[in-house]
Write a structure and sequence with these properties.
6-stranded antiparallel sheet; mainly beta; Jelly Rolls; Lipoxygenase-1; Choice-of-anchor J domain-containing protein
Length: about 700
């Protein structure tokens, strides 16, 4: 049950002799969801008062002040202001509509709360009065999907302008939350209208905890700085903060309580002049950081990387502390300066009160895709420490530091590179993470349609770890491969592959397994790990021998029964030729065993039981041993998957399913994913192959 509170006390000591790593504390309290308020009109109504433990996060700049650089000593920088377009401290949120803010709750079932005044009994504000922040919680929906928007007034914005805000969740929360920052790129400012809709706010600028993992959202007030992209020149538009959680609400496994404070939107500095590149876009984005890596005064600082595009427009570097007005010089080389390299471009910008400094080449530089280049880092000797990560988050390059540009193969600075938007490619992002288990047996690759590996990662170290990498390519469709295979088989990474801010595939890999997702295109498609056949009359496999087992959901699509592992059979993907109502009946061998049926659309992933769920049923009109999904609306052309499974681990056997309705269902699924037959020819229903058949079985084990 969701309201049971467990107290888990853990103390972990970690020793490191070479690497100065930033260690997260274990949470000490796990409990019920944090209500905070019961409706928006009540400013505070405490329900659960948490302890005052703070949990540090590697991306929290305010917690890095006392760190020692891994390669030398840290020098602190100063903080300073910048010209502002909007500032909001959320002292009294009842004034926000009059100031031009709008609030749109497009959740599946609007709940008892909307955005509300902060509750200091949950946690106090980042600054100002203790309740001077804005909050939202799991009661934003009475269903299971929260899609709640806070939208700023209309502002005249340009690429490079910055959004700065603070956010957090309660300490020790075990119900993950997610927040997105979006912008309407053309200024249309069309509100969202459904639980998965974003309206015209299609440009995703930031996503906090995209995979909804426990501990993936900062539990202390943390500052985020977001650079605006995706605009064509100056645009009158709005910025949207989207509280978006699936499998949430009062009965869900996700969603708790978030706070947002001290929002500022500032004009960008445009450091380096921008050159002839009108719209620089991110090329490589190595944003992982867990340490203070090196000081400017050491000299010999450089980061290598592999070019993904044929033009380089600039680069950026992250520091552990913000500063203002200090020179940062970055230069691009085709080899190290002490090894015969040639400088291809150079530029200088000044720090602007944030932890990032970007420099743009004037003019842009032609480079060779796949070749290694070097970003040399120089600047004011009083600059803060250059941030980095000691877990090899970017395998395509590494740190150089000290006289002679000494290499550190497993270290990376926190850096990014820019190319020019030629309109010929899409921005792809891969995130692989786990907050609980090790990642030493995890590895993955993103491949283009030529077979080239364009991103890769792993293995990783102790939890928690999170690796986010970005690439721009037009060589679609792509293929994503991820494995969790090794001696122990205990790694369970969560993966998300997205393009242009839209999630294409997401899920969790079980220990000792691997998955390949072919046919990925930016508009969606491909990537469905199907265990599939096209038999409506079949048998679910034996639990003890088949890999086709899962922890099934409940009939309402919530996860999970815990009565497994339960065997299952998949019919699909199937489509219908006429949009309308259909009924799906299942007879489980004349009532000989207790079955369940589930319907999914677009894709079925046995490790992600709630995504794409449509309907389910346990006992049909015939009682035990029958199931029925009555009058479900199916759309012509949409791919569906019918799952036949058991009530518990001992329930499996023969079954007969029927699909009746206003049209006809037809199946065209691929060959079974878990087929062990080397060199097998993939067949869809209706295909034929001339040749000699030695042995063949379907997914039910039938010859």
């Amino acid at each position: 049950m969701k309201k049971i509170t467990m107290f888990i006390f853990a103390f972990i000591g970690i020793m490191a002799t070479v690497e100065a790593q930033f260690i997260q504390q274990n949470t000490s309290i796990y409990g019920s969801k944090t209500s905070g308020v019961e409706n928006r009109q009540q400013e505070t109504m405490p329900s659960v008062v948490l302890n005052n433990e703070t949990r540090s996060a590697t991306f929290d700049a305010q917690n890095l002040n006392s760190e020692t650089p891994i390669l030398s000593n840290q020098r602190a920088g100063a903080r300073g202001p910048q010209a502002t377009l909007l500032t909001e401290d959320f002292d009294d949120i009842t004034t926000l509509p009059g100031a031009g803010f709008t609030f749109v709750n497009a959740s599946d079932v609007v709940g008892s709360t909307d955005w509300f005044q902060g509750n200091d009994a949950v946690f106090p504000a980042q600054s100002g009065a203790s309740t001077a922040y804005i909050g939202a919680n799991y009661n934003n929906t009475a269903g299971s999907v929260i899609n709640n928007f806070m939208i700023t007034p209309v502002l005249n914005l340009e690429n490079g302008d910055e959004i700065i805000f603070w956010t957090r969740v309660p300490t020790g929360s075990t119900f993950p939350d997610r927040l997105e920052v979006r912008i309407s790129p053309d200024g249309a400012n069309v509100d969202p209208t459904g639980p998965a809709d974003v309206g015209s706010y299609t440009e995703l600028l930031l996503e906090i905890n995209p995979s909804l993992t426990v501990g993936g959202y900062p539990e202390t007030w943390t500052q985020f700085t977001v650079a605006i992209t995706g605009l064509t020149g100056a645009t009158d538009t709005r910025v949207a903060f989207r509280y978006w959680v699936t499998n949430g609400g009062p009965a869900g496994s996700n969603s708790d309580y978030i706070g947002i404070d001290t929002l500022t939107i500032e004009e960008g500095t445009g450091g380096g002049g921008g050159g002839v590149c009108g719209t620089p876009i991110l090329e490589v984005n190595q944003d992982a950081t867990n340490t203070c890596m090196a000081n400017i005064t050491q000299g010999g600082l450089a980061q290598s990387y592999i070019a993904l595009e044929d033009q380089s427009a600039g680069a950026g570097i992250m520091f552990t502390d913000p500063s203002t007005g200090l020179d940062v010089n970055l230069s691009l080389w085709d080899g190290l300066p002490n090894a015969g390299g040639t400088m291809l471009a150079s530029g200088t910008s000044q720090t602007d009160g944030t932890v990032w400094a970007d420099v743009y080449w004037d003019p842009v530089v032609d480079v060779t895709v796949g070749d290694t280049y070097y970003i040399v880092i120089e600047g004011d000797p009083t600059l803060p420490c250059v941030a980095g990560d000691t877990t090899n988050p970017y395998p395509g390059g590494n740190v150089f530091a000290n006289a002679g540009y000494n290499p550190f193969p497993d270290f990376d600075y926190t850096f990014r590179t820019y190319s020019c938007d030629s309109g010929g490619g899409n921005n792809w992002t891969v995130t692989v993470e786990d907050a609980i288990n090790f990642g030493d047996e995890v590895s993955w690759e993103l491949r283009d349609n030529l077979g080239a590996v364009i991103l890769s990662g792993g293995p990783y170290g102790a939890p928690p770890y999170s690796d986010t990498q970005m690439v721009m390519t037009s060589n679609e469709p792509l293929e994503f491969y991820i494995e969790s295979i090794g001696t122990f088989g205990d790694n369970t990474p969560t993966y998300t592959v997205s393009c242009g801010g839209n999630v294409i595939i997401t899920g969790t890999v079980a220990g000792g397994t691997d998955n390949t997702f072919p046919g990925l295109v930016c508009g969606g498609g491909g990537g469905c790990p199907i265990v599939s056949d096209c038999n409506l009359i079949d048998s679910t496999p034996d639990d003890a021998t088949s890999p086709d087992i899962w922890d099934r959901p409940f009939a309402d699509g919530t996860c999970c029964s815990g009565l497994g592992p339960v065997s299952y059979d998949v019919y699909g993907p199937f489509t219908v030729d006429v949009t309308g109502l259909y009924t799906i009946d299942s007879d489980q061998d004349g009532g000989a065993w207790d079955g369940y049926i589930f319907l999914y659309e677009t894709c079925f992933d046995p490790l992600d039981q709630t995504t794409n769920y449509v309907a389910g049923d346990d006992d049909g009109p015939g009682g035990l041993g029958t199931s029925q999904i009555l009058d479900v609306n199916l759309t012509a052309g949409t791919e569906y998957y019918l799952i036949t499974t058991g009530f518990s681990a001992g329930d499996f056997g023969d079954f007969e399913n029927t699909i009746t309705g206003v049209g006809t269902a037809s199946c065209g699924g691929p060959v079974v994913t878990y087929d062990d037959c080397a060199g097998a020819i993939a067949l869809s229903c209706g295909d034929s192959v001339v040749g000699e058949t030695l042995t063949a079985t379907d997914s039910g084990g039938n010859a």
